[in-house]
Amino acid sequence: MDRTAIITNAVFNRTNKTIAYIENNETDDMVKRKYLGRVIENLKVFNADANDGYVDVAYYQTVFEHTYQIVRGLHNGNLNDYVKNNIGKPLYIQAALFDTDSEATKTLMSGMVDLYPEVLIKKIRTISNPEAADIVVAKAAPRSPKTILNFATSTAVEREIVRRNKDPYVQKIVQIADESKSPLKAIFFIEELNKGSITL
């Protein structure tokens, strides 16, 4: 009964409240379409899980609450504070909803890369905000230097994302990519190279 009450509140009550907020506060049709599209997507994903017989109650409670709070935060211009206090996967999956808010997007990506550096760095090309992408690269580099090296030596989109980064640690990896005869061997000494205790 507790699970049912929580899901009912999330799927019906929170959704209706979110829709009412959008209809009563937004006048731009494109903005309305974007917000309502996210609500519909939440319901579709929930419905698919329900049909499969498994629903993570806490997760969906959080997802529907996030949608409501994101819409409110965007309208009131204070979304960054909410994002800062709610970093996690349920918020990350809704990142596209607030991609127009540069500060909130940077805050989310900065927090997510602290939690999941290996996962987020592999999705770097999907991060549309350049400053947020730069934060992800800089924070992920010490924990995944080989991945950064692979990007720096590739011909893919990630190459330019890594090479434009101004972080000294990232630049040291780029130097290894460009100047070392054996980059894959040299990368194991990135800490010593970065500290200046040895040279290439």
Descriptive account of the structure:
The chain is mostly helical and 200 residues long. It has a domain at 2-115. Helices cover 72% and strands 0% of the residues. The chain has helices at 2-25, 29-51, 57-76, 79-84, 89-92, 102-115, 117-121, 130-140, 145-152, 157-163, 168-179, 183-186, 190-195. The longest helix has 24 residues, at 2-25. The mean pLDDT is 93.
Please give the radius of gyration in angstroms.
21 Å
* Helix content range: over 70%
From the helix content, strand content and strand pairing, which structural class follows? mainly alpha
Report the uncertain regions. none
Percent strand equals under 5%
- What count of helical segments does DSSP give? 13
Salient structural properties:
elongated, 200 residues, 72% helix, mainly alpha
